[in-house]
Design brief:
alpha+beta, 2 domains, 4-stranded antiparallel sheet, two-stranded antiparallel sheet, 6 strands, 43% helix, DUF3150, DUF3150 domain-containing protein
Length: 343
């Protein structure tokens, strides 16, 4: 089957890559001075605004303006639009004006972020006592905000060239989800309780990387890294997983959730290193040296908010958050996992 796609004559594909910062975090029970967590099946508290919502409305308006400009003459084509060449220059001119205004607005918000933050904290405190401090304690970092507010105009060639990054990002997302699942299990059971069902994510991602190896030269090294972990799994299904293997598994998940660190990629949106990290001091040379050893030294960590979505639950700004060191207790079954006792 031919992989060549023939487009109609005299048209050009145009794609928009727009991401917005919503400036919200999950509203926790303790913010309302409740001494218990609500059952999510029963009710959901919603979100708390970490900056005055009015400041972010312009981004939504600009995004709608850009889509309207494309829709006027263009036709939906996948995630983009097919634009007739006779109107291409006109549409691109409109999009570039929107893009320019977008980044001017972004620069204004970032340059005055501390002022905006403190003003909103003051307003919040006036509306409800204690919320001003909550906002300051959970403020987003400037780097994170900068990474989230993006407006890019792409061609079909750009989209093809970006497939490598998309593949690696999808790998990171899959293992980030697994990381959060392990953290939740740690909360509920007191330890990670690694079992053979936890191996499914490794095999699934390994298969995906193998069949898409033509998209990225980073795929096969990741496949080898995953295989080095899977080779340590006992063949006998009745044999339990050793503590040593569980250590290696947790470390592998921690590394695979941030493959951009492994490969030194600079174009992946930044996250605070403390966010959901299972073993934050894991070595970065694991691709060259697949043999892993988990950190056994007990460390302390800052409180990590539960993640609902990436634009909501990034780790608070290190510039504003006051780090409180807490003593941790060793886990009876997995001593190396004691770093999560304060989660």
């Amino acid at each position: 089957m031919s992989s060549i796609i023939t487009l109609p004559k005299d048209v050009t594909p145009v794609y928009l890559e727009i991401s917005q910062w919503h400036g919200k975090r999950v509203l926790k029970s303790e913010y309302l001075e409740l001494d218990y967590e609500l059952d999510k099946e029963l009710a959901h508290l919603g979100n708390v605004s970490m900056i005055k919502p009015e400041l972010l409305k312009k981004f939504r308006n600009l995004s709608n303006t850009a889509v309207a400009a494309l829709s006027k003459y263009g036709v939906r084509f996948g995630d983009g639009f097919i634009v007739p060449n006779v109107k291409h220059a006109e549409v691109m001119s409109q999009l570039k004006k929107v893009q320019e205004e977008w980044y001017e607005t972004k620069a204004e918000i970032i340059s005055r972020y501390q002022i905006h933050l403190l003003r909103w904290a003051s307003e919040a405190e006036a509306k409800r006592k204690g919320f001003g401090q909550i906002i300051k304690d959970n403020a987003f970092s400037v780097d994170y905000i900068d990474s989230q507010i993006q407006f890019e105009i792409r061609t079909a060639q750009d989209m093809v060239s970006g497939l490598e990054k998309t593949l690696i990002d999808e790998v990171a997302e899959r293992f980030t989800d697994k990381q959060e699942q392990l953290i939740k299990r740690k909360h509920e059971k007191g330890h990670f309780a690694i079992n053979r069902r936890d191996l499914i994510v490794l095999r699934d991602v390994q298969d995906k990387l193998l069949v898409n190896a033509m998209l990225s030269d980073k795929a096969l090294p990741l496949v080898d890294f995953i295989e080095a972990i899977l080779e340590k799994v006992p063949d006998d299904l009745k044999e339990s997983l050793s503590n040593e293997f569980c250590d290696d598994y947790v470390q592998a998940i921690s590394m695979l959730a941030k493959p951009q660190l492994i490969f030194g990629m600079s174009n992946v949106k930044p996250k605070d290193d403390s966010q959901g990290s299972l073993l934050p001091n894991a070595p970065l040379n694991v691709i060259q040296q697949p043999s892993l050893s988990a950190e056994t030294e007990t460390t302390s960590n800052t409180d990590i908010p539960q993640i609902e979505e990436i634009s909501v639950e990034e780790t608070p700004s290190k510039e504003i958050q006051e780090v409180e060191e807490t003593d941790t207790n060793n886990d009876d079954s997995h001593d190396a996992f004691s770093i999560l006792d304060d989660f």
